[in-house]
Here is the input.
Amino acid sequence: MKDLLRRLTSIPAPSGREEQIRAFIQAEIKDYCDDLTVDTMGNLIAFKRGGKTKLQFAAHMDEIGVIVTAIDEQGFLRFGNVGGIRPHQLYAQRVRFPNGTAGVIGAEKVDDLKQLTLEKLYIDIGAASAAEAKTKVNVGEIAAFDYPFVDLGQRVVAKALDDRVGCAVLIEALKRVTKPQNDLYCTFTVQEEVGLRGAKTAAFGIEPDLGIALDVTGTGDTPEAPKLAMKLGQGAAIKVKDVSLITHPQVKELLTMLAEKNGIPYQFEVLPFGGTDAGAIQLTKAGIPAGVISIPCRYLHSPSEMIDLNDLEAAVRLVVATMEHPITL
Here is the structure.
């Protein structure tokens, strides 16, 4: 799993530019499903036959990034956000464009950190003029953050663990499941970070009976952290609520029962911010019961996110248990 995470997080794939990560996942799972398709939006959907109930899992492939909005006369790139980024965390961070061009984020002088907005930031790609910069990068190009995977033993740090960790869980579950009791639609979605877009269209086409997103969640286990119950190393998190979703009671009860029955460590998640693909799935057509299996993660939406591999393993086991449990709602 650690090597899979290393490979997944090394691939740049900001929202709307998921081609590389999709190709990698497609090659990784092609021998573990009955059908593999890519829909109009770019979602990768792996189907595995198993039963009458249609169960959709969703893990998003995209990551946060930046998009070039203008190039000034000195060759510095002005940029906007792709997904949720915090300006005060960006100074001196590195980014890389699809053609390999690398840059570092600089900032204009500000007297107060509160004045540090995206408009005060720029990307320096080492160009001495606008003409030189335009030979490397054009307006409208999207870059991902460029940081290596770090192995800390039982915990790892990387960019894009939101949500390559969810992709890793779904890939590994597909490899482990032996007797699926439901028709499985394992969906690797696009453009989650900019509005849950891929999940919305995928669920519309699949029309599942139940939907479960796989994503990260914040923690409350660092100094002076927000008062959140989730902690690294305490197991998979079964979501109760976030901004986009109140988990369907039957889904919460199902996941809790399966965790307890199979001796899988778990914790409950109530998140006062953010949302996941489940928020879009539940509102599809006439409504779909939906929930989330989350992996606790520190330093969300930064180039240095951290997870515990025990939580990752617990999430895989819970997904497999759900796949192999005959579901009726």
In short: The chain has eight helices and 17 strands. The domain at 65-145 is CATH 2.40.30.40 (Elongation Factor Tu (Ef-tu); domain 3). Residues 161-176 form the longest helix (16 residues). The radius of gyration is 20 Å.
